[in-house]
Amino acid sequence: MSSDRTYHHGDLRRAVLAAALDVIRTEGPAALSLRDLARRAGVSHAAPAHHFKDRTGLLTAIATEGYVLFADALADAPDLRERGVRYVRFAAEHPAHFQVMFQPELHRIDDPDLIAAKVRATVELRAGVDGLPSGGGDDARLTGVAAWSLAHGFATLLLSGNLSGAVGDRDPEEVFRTLTGLFFSPHTPD
After folding, report:
1. What SS3 class is residue 159?
2. Pick from 68, 74, 72: nearest CA to 88
3. In this structure, what is the dihedral angle of CA atoms 156, 159, 165, 166, given to the nearest 10 degrees?
């Protein structure tokens, strides 16, 4: 037996996910095709369907993996500002996951693994807002939306290259810390 067979993979699922993330990172989710991914992985065009069923299944797996990585990135952040910094860092380090996660039309929103991963990420996001003085109730929810909007907006603008002039060669995480200081001053007890 030849050891250079292109169809043998120790982990075809991982190989297809890696190839898909590369395509999404460089060309966007619209360019994704199971047939092309099979060609890149050196397997039959039907092989990826064994793991993902279809394109939507693959994108659901990417979103699920993204939310797991995202929750891990946010875990144990000491405060809201650092959760925001980790949000921005996650987007910069995982741009393909980030693109897919926040486009629910790309994946199966009722997938149990995706739901569980999103719940865990949401818990981590909300943990940063829990200690803020917001008056409770709807105010607390709106404070969370404001914080999320700032982090997500900054991350999205950063990934799309729209902050290059404003950020320049400065560390985007430090720029984000400065921005949060403009809107969310640290609460000190009286």
Report:
1. helix
2. 74
3. 40
**Count of other CB atoms within 10 angstroms of residue 104:** 12
- With tokens 């430090």, the residue in question is 174
Under the phi-then-psi rule, with left for phi > 0, alpha for psi from -120 to 50, and beta for the rest, what region is 42? left
pLDDT (0 to 100) of residue 138: 62
Gap between the Cα atoms of 67 and 146, Å rounded: 20
Answer yes or no: pTM beyond 0.70: yes
Q: Where are the alpha helices (DSSP H) in 30-136?
A: 34-41, 47-52, 55-74, 80-93, 95-101, 112-127
| pLDDT band for position 118 (cuts 50, 70, 90) | very high
Question: What is the C-alpha to C-alpha distance for residues 61 and 55, in angstroms, rounded to an integer?
Answer: 10
């990172």: which residue's tokens?
25
Q: Which residues contact 37 (CB under 8 A, 6 or more apart)?
A: 16, 19, 20, 23, 48, 58
The pLDDT tens digits of the residues spanning 12-70 come to: 888 889 999 999 999 999 999 988 988 887 888 888 888 898 999 999 999 999 999 99
